[in-house]
Each structure stands twice: as C-alpha cells, then as structure tokens.
Amino acid sequence: MAPSAAYSKLASHQVHMYASRPSTEEDLISRIQDAEIVINIRATSRFTKDVLARCPKLRLISIWGTGTDNIDLEAAKIAGIRVTNTPGVSAISVAEHTLSLIMAVAKQTAVVDRQVREGNWPRAMVTQLYGKTMGLMGTGAIGSQVARLAEGIGMRVIAWSFHPKHDLAEWVSFDDIFRRSDVVSVHVRQSPETIGMIGRKHFDLMKPSAIFINTARGPIVREADLLDALQRNQIAGAGLDVFATEPLPSDSPFYALSNVVLTPHAAGITPEATEAGLDLAIENVFAFLSGRAMNVVV
User: Fold this and answer.
1) Planar angle of CA 249, 117, 103, nearest 5 degrees
2) Where exactly are the structural domains of the chain?
3) So which residues are the catalytic ones?
4) Is residue 1 scored above 70 in pLDDT?
5) What pTM was estimated for this model as a whole?
C-alpha cells in the first residue's frame, strides 16, 4: 500500500501510533492517559465517562468516521473535551456497498455461486430491481448517495427522515417505508433516539418479497425480531454489514440463513475513503490547535 499522504502531515509532530485496538478499557487508558489529543480511527474504542475522567490532559478527540456512539458526549462536554468527526468522507463507498448488498440479496448471488461450485446449474427466478421501490430511512450524505444509485438502476425512491428537506425523494411516513418498499435501506445514525427503532411490527408490515438492508449500525434494529422474520421467510432476505455484537459471534444464527448476505462492518473501508477520513481527522486537529472552524460534535 502506498504511504499515506495524510499521515505524512504529522511527520513534524510527536505522535504515538498503535496498529491494534485496545484490548480493554485499561489498555485504552494506558495509551492515552498523557495525551492532549487523540485521533480515533473508525470509532473502535469506547470513551466512557470513566476513561475520560482518568485522562485529565485530554483536550480533543478527533474521530475518523461519522458515528459518535462510542463516546460519552455528555461526559466529554462536562470535562471540556472537544469531539470532532469526519462527516461524508465515506458516503460514496458506503452507498456503493449498500447497492452491492441489495444486488447480492436480490440476485441470490452467494447461494447460486455455491450451487454452481457444487456442480449444479440452478435456474432461480431472482428479483429484478428496475421498477421496484427503494425505501430510505435517513437521507444524509449516505442516504442521498444511495438514492442516486437506486434511481440510476431504475428504482423509484421513497424516504423517511427526522428532518426531511429538498426534493430527494417522495417523503412518506415511517411505517409506509416498510409497507410500500421492495427494498428498505437504513441510513440513520445510532443515538438514544434510534436504538431499537426498527422491530417486529415493522417487519410485519413488509412485503414477503421485500429485502432489508442495514449498513448503518446494528443496535438500530432489534436483531431478534429481524432473525425471526428471516427464519420464518416472512421477508425475502437481508443484506447486513452491521450487527448488535461485532465481530459477529461464532454461534450467531445468521450463519445458518441462506437468505442473508453478511459483511464485516466494512462498507466504508476503501483506500479512497480511508485516506479522505484520515486527512479530515488530522485537519480537525490542526484546526483545533489554530482556533479555526472544525467539524464539531461537542
């Protein structure tokens, strides 16, 4: 892999880089206890109230990524610790991954591939997406890109959002997303307001031929309810990049389901998105140090 142009911006600064995730909360504290600024890649470490309290020198947490669910924002605010993120840098890569999951589920790609490798020659009647309805939950940077891609393959787009604006799609109610869509794709942030917001009653509204896609965050969906709908073939299938517990446990019931395509929370990991995210995370640090505007969360 080519050297990171973004990381080279830190060459003249004292930087401690760790290639692995902290294994425990104590490990995280030992790494950052004397730091004033922390760049956190892809929100993989949990900055709890206790962690922040035990790192009294900390002034800034610069997140590579959009999600802030791994940081106790209220505790950070009280402690006077600024938190920044990198909105939008992985929007295209996540949107493309979303489309790839939709295609894989609709065309039963994994199942058909396995059958051909086993010596079979299946003639499955798979789903045509042209003319079908895409239902978006959330229309921020990622949702907007998914809408563009869906329209590009001839899908009709309907959407629900906490803050509907512009003419991106036909705006409908929360329940109508599930009732009317052939594909439901989730693109809201994880927050206290969104955890568990999708459950059994919503899967009950979906068409038996419909597909459910989640590239946002696992806890937004009540996983047991989704599993039940898939196990009973209440819906046609799902494409999932995120889960309630990550990595996915070895005994997860998802592994046994042929109507699900699984990926390892990797939708936003492309060389382009990784470099852009690191660059903006570093620019947020420089902006903080010079008093310029940043992508501030708190």
Assistant:
1) 65
2) 7-89+270-290, 91-262
3) 217, 246, 265
4) no
5) 0.91
The tokens of 208 are what?
Answer: 């038996």
- Is residue 35 pLDDT above 60, yes or no? yes
> Residue 13 has what pLDDT?
86
The DSSP secondary structure of the chain, one letter per residue, reads -PPPTTGGGGTTS-----SS--SSHHHHHHHHTT-SEEEEETT-S-B-HHHHHT-TT--EEEEESS--TTB-HHHHHHHT-EEE--TTTTHHHHHHHHHHHHHHHHTTHHHHHHHHHTT------PPP-TT-EEEEE--SHHHHHHHHHHHHTT-EEEEE-SS--TTSSEE--HHHHHHH-SEEEE-PPPSTTTTT-B-HHHHHHS-TT-EEEE-S-GGGB-HHHHHHHHHTTSSSEEEES--SSSSPPTT-GGGG-TTEEE--S-TT--HHHHHHHHHHHHHHHHHHHHT----B--
Average pLDDT over residues 51-68: 94
Query: Are residues 261 and 101 in contact, defined by beta-carbon separation less than 8 angstroms?
Result: yes
From CA 123, how far away is CA 121, in angstroms rounded? Answer: 7
Pick the CATH number of 91-262 from 3.30.70.2740, 3.40.50.300, 3.40.50.720, 3.40.50.1240: 3.40.50.720
